[in-house]
Amino acid sequence: MSTLAVAKKDFLDVRRAKIVWFVSSLYLLLAVAMFYFGQNNAEEPEFRNALQSLTGTGALVLTLVALVTAYLAIAGERESGSIKYMLSIPNSRREVVLGKFLTRSGVVVASILLGFGIGTILGYLWYPSVDLELLLGTLALTILFTLTYVSIAIGISAATASRSRAMGGTIAFFFVTTVLVLFGLVNTALGWIFNDVLGRDLSGEVLTFIEALVSPMIAFSRAFNIFLADLPEEAFQDQPWYLEGEMMIVILLAWLVVPLALGIWKFERADLG
Amino acid sequence: MPAIKTTALTKRYGGDVLAVDGLDLTVENGEVFGFLGPNGAGKSTTINMLLDFVRPSDGTATVLGLDAQADTDEIRHRIGVLPEGASVYDRLTAREHLEWVIDTKGTDDDPDALLERVGLTSEDGDRAAGGYSKGMTQRLGFGMALVGDPDLLILDEPSSGLDPTGMQEMREIIQQEAERGTTVFFSSHILGEVEAVCDRIGIMNEGNLVATGTLDDLQGDLDLGAPISLEVATVPDSLALERVEGVRSVSVEGTTITATCADPSVKVDVVERVAATTTVKDIISEDTSLEQLFNTYTNGERAGDEEKAETPSPEVSA
Questions:
Q1: Whether residue B230 is found in the same domain as residue B204
Q2: Is a pLDDT exceeding 60 seen at residue B191?
Q3: Region labeled Disordered — which residues (chain B) (predicted)?
Q4: Sorting pLDDT into bands at 50, 70 and 90, what band is A17?
């Protein structure tokens, strides 16, 4: 009940934040661009390819949409002191965190739906065929992936006392689990730590699993195996069970729940001086 | 059942900072209690523990007979709070703030009536609060505290940011609430406002409650003496006011002579002595001021200290 009252008020607040509109527009612009360039000068434009560009490149923008939308949700209120108004009326600290998670999730899901909506319309307009099954599967996976970033940003926000620390924590997370991962540096680092330093002699597959554990980005990209499994040309046939798409979804679900739970745990024990 | 009761309430930060030290405080139902002390005395920490913003290191606190930590939900339904130095939501209008609080508390207050009560116009109410002055923000905060006709109002530095008119209006609302039977607990480092509205006061200093009681009690306990000030045309060279029996101290500032008397009846003798040597333009006779009281408790100065009469600043900072 209170969670919804928190969410209702927070939605009024966050929908007027310009930065949220800015990053969300960036995503929508990207959706248009991907579907335009996917068919521009192409004789046999493939809807599937354009969709993959939107989810691949789009994922990076969506992490930013999610982090920017959520990282100040609680830390910002602690710094400005407005959290005291929030907690002077019948709201528990858990309800505050959950309510904020709901609204910030709502905002990013709205952006994703708009982006995919634009993609679908352009798909019907410019492409010979639209693979609806793939579209819906990709949409569901993209939403799950983006919500893990909302959960992470809310978790960091609930665990930190000021804007600067929330920003520092969020940037650090983004840099390590997203930027470094995209350059393949996390994989290299994991190999060095486990095999060279600790001498564990782990296989490349196990290292990839560990990489997926520490980076929702990797888990997300590998989860697409679910949709690609029926394609003979894909080289994902003989991989171990722990690299299957289903396992990656379990990892993403853990990323959705754990940061939020830790954030609530930390926030419930904090002194709000 | 008291409205607020703390027993050996203690807050320690880190190893060595003792913000509140074994506080035993009781605020009775229906009274207006002024919680005084210089900045950093532990007032806000105490209030934060009552509201479960900060957890005590030791001791217990009850609010309206409910445990301050275990029963926060019921407490928050029944109290109204004006937190100190808290900013409101810049992107929401005053009306949206009030509607949110009404919604969360599940009451049926009229936002317009609340706006009017705290002195905000309907146009103010439809503007985003980010553009408000400090005083308007404080009025809005006060309006939110009044939602749901609370049994207890906890106001942390309610007059900060208000101009004299605003402070006067705030006092009037506090008095109206008190007449309706609401218990009011408010902290302040500004002495004048406490004097005007409080049934009882408590003075905090360095984490300890150094005095509680009615103003009369505290004045009686301390025997501070009664001050009288005379504005004269010229200050005579040989005044020898100190030699008047019952005069404790004398100070001269410009053309104003101030004498502190052991007993108010001595004031007449002072006036006569001065009038015999020069022209008296004005006479200001005061009760022992709360400020004097306050200084005595928070600076360890005792009655008869001459410096007190010479530092009539309305605010005391630590």
A1: no
A2: yes
A3: 297-318
A4: confident
Tokens representing B10? 């203690």
- Which residues of B lie closer than 8 Å to A, measured between beta carbons? 44-45, 48, 51-55, 72-73, 76-77, 79-81, 83, 85-89, 91-92, 96-97, 100-101, 103-106, 128, 141, 144-145, 147
Q: Is B128 found in the same domain as B19?
A: yes
Indicate whether B84 and B202 sit together in one domain.
yes
In this prediction, residues B9-38 reach a mean pLDDT of: 92
Query: Could you tell me which residues come within 8 angstroms of residue A264 by beta carbon, excluding any fewer than 6 positions away?
Result: A93, A94, A97, A98, A158
All residues of chain A having their beta carbon less than 8 Å from the beta carbon of residue B100 are: 5, 8-9
- What is the chain B residue with the closest CA to A7? B100
What DSSP state is assigned to residue B128? B
- C-alpha B108/C-alpha B148 separation (Å) is 8
Say what the ipTM of the complex is.
Answer: 0.86
Residue type, A272: L
Percent of chain A's residues with pLDDT above 70: 96
Whether B25 and B156 share a structural domain: yes
Angstroms from B90 CA to nearest CA on chain A:
8
Q: What is the mean pLDDT of residues A127-152?
A: 93
pLDDT reading at A71 higher than 90: yes
Residue B232 and residue B128 share a domain: no
Say if residue B141 is in the same domain as residue B186.
yes
Q: CA A266, B75, B118: angle at the middle one, nearest 5?
A: 105
Q: Tell me which chain B residues have a C-beta less than 8 angstroms from the C-beta of A84.
A: 51, 53, 81, 83, 86
Classify residue A235 by its DSSP letter: S
Do the Cβ atoms of A111 and A24 come closer than 8 Å?
A: yes
> What order of strands is seen across the sheet that includes strand B79-82?
B79-82, B152-156, B183-188, B32-36, B200-205, B208-213
Closest chain B residue by Cα to residue A91: B73
Asked if the model's pLDDT at residue B195 lies above 50, the reply is: yes
Instruction: Name the pTM for this structure.
Output: 0.83
Residue A134: strand, helix, or coil? helix
- CB A55, CB B70: distance < 8 Å: no
Task: Tell how strand B32-36 and strand B200-205 pair up.
Answer: parallel
At position A267, the amino acid (one-letter code) is F
pLDDT at position B309 is 40
Range among A3-7, A93-97, B159-163, B224-228 with highest mean pLDDT value: A93-97
In this predicted structure, the answer to whether residue A235 has a pLDDT above a threshold of 70 is no
Whether residue B171 sits in one domain with residue B31: yes
Residues of the domain holding B33: 4-213
CA distance A213 to A210: 5
Distance CA B85, CA A19 (A): 26
DSSP-derived secondary structure letter, B87: -
Task: Judge whether A170 and A71 are in contact, CB under 8 Å.
Answer: yes
